[in-house]
Write a structure and sequence with these properties.
Blueprint (H helix, E strand, L loop, with lengths): L11 E5 L5 E4 L4 E4 L8 H5 L8 H11 L4 E5 L5 H4 L2 H8 L3 E3 L1 H9 L7 E3 L5 E4 L2 E7 L35 E7 L2 E6 L16 E5 L6 H12 L3 E5 L20 H8 L15 E5 L3 H4 L12
Parallel strand pairs: 3-4, 4-5, 5-6, 10-11, 11-12
Antiparallel strand pairs: 1-2, 1-13, 2-3, 7-8, 8-9, 9-10
Helix pairs in contact: 2-4
Length: 301
């Protein structure tokens, strides 16, 4: 499915937006995955108050990232911290929203036309400029009391604004992004289906670590199967704080324990992305590829 034709470029940059949100660009076209900038406070979420996407922030970030070049907005699953802002980024860019049927119902509630709603069927390949995208069926990690929050599906257009519990999980995916300069796998939720990555390889693995359960088992089923040249943890920031306050660690993400455990595997090179700042990622940035497997890594700035 060819959505936007571009000239192509060999250099790919990445901007980590916090949570599992990233912006990938080759200079001609770009992809947004799980963008979440509205950042609702814990009290609002916990009390079940309506979550209204911050349109001003979304416009600001769409402009900063270059909305004219956004070729698609991809969503790994439909929890609010992955899907609440995504359809509005798609609206601003005039770009398709790609995700589960639950995610598409969030898009319908936001007023996206059907022509911009693309179902993410596993194995189906999307072409967006020089990027090739494949969704791989996955699972969600047990975040609260060893349970997956907000299970189920969104079966009709979501009336907005909606409370957090209305953003049901829906389908969960790893997102494989291939480009002439290399391959990136976005694994935004810290769950998995055993064996899901037996035949998948990537140069860069963006690995969500919040709610992962046992770190060693998680690494064995995802990171060590993928065998990336660079492993980058994501979804380890406190997403209840506004982005303008900068990076704050999410306590239950246990980032230090994750790095210590991952560093025991000599094949894994671990680094951290700066927060909300564009850096070159493909071809592999020497600053990343020189990171040490003993856990030495850059803290987000």
């Amino acid at each position: 499915m060819n959505m936007k034709k571009v000239r192509g470029n060999n250099n790919v940059t990445i901007t980590w937006l916090g949570t599992a949100g990233v912006h990938l660009s080759d200079g001609d076209t770009s992809l947004l995955i799980d963008p979440y900038v509205s950042r609702f406070g814990m009290l609002r979420v916990g009390l079940g108050l309506p979550l209204r996407a911050d349109q001003d922030l979304i416009r600001q970030w769409a402009g900063r990232l270059g909305s004219d070049n956004i070729g698609a907005v991809l969503v790994s699953h439909s929890h609010f911290d992955h899907s609440v802002d995504a359809p509005f980024f798609a609206l601003h860019a005039g770009a398709p929203l790609i995700g589960s049927e639950s995610t598409l119902n969030v898009g319908r509630g936001a007023g996206l036309p059907e022509k911009l709603l693309k179902p993410a069927m596993p194995g189906r390949q999307f072409r967006v400029g020089s990027f090739s995208i494949t969704f791989i069926e996955s699972g969600h990690g047990p975040v609260l009391f060893n349970r997956v929050p907000y299970p189920g599906t969104i079966d009709s257009p979501l009336a907005l604004p909606a409370r957090a519990a209305a953003y049901r999980l829906g389908g969960v995916y790893g997102i494989l992004v291939k480009h002439p300069s290399g391959t990136i796998l976005h694994h935004g939720s810290a769950g998995f289906i055993p064996g899901m990555y037996e035949r998948t390889r990537a140069d860069v693995l963006l690995l969500g670590i919040a709610g992962r359960g046992n770190t060693e088992r998680y690494l064995n089923e995802v990171a060590l199967k993928i065998a990336p040249q660079i492993l980058i943890p994501v979804h380890h920031d406190n997403f209840f704080k506004p982005m303008e306050k900068g990076f704050y660690p999410l306590g239950n993400a246990r980032i230090d324990e994750f790095i210590r455990t991952a560093a025991k595997h000599a094949s894994l090179t671990i680094t951290l992305l700066p927060f909300a700042r564009q850096v070159s990622i493909l071809p592999l940035n020497p600053a990343f590829s020189s990171a040490r497997a003993d856990g030495t890594s850059r803290r987000p700035s």
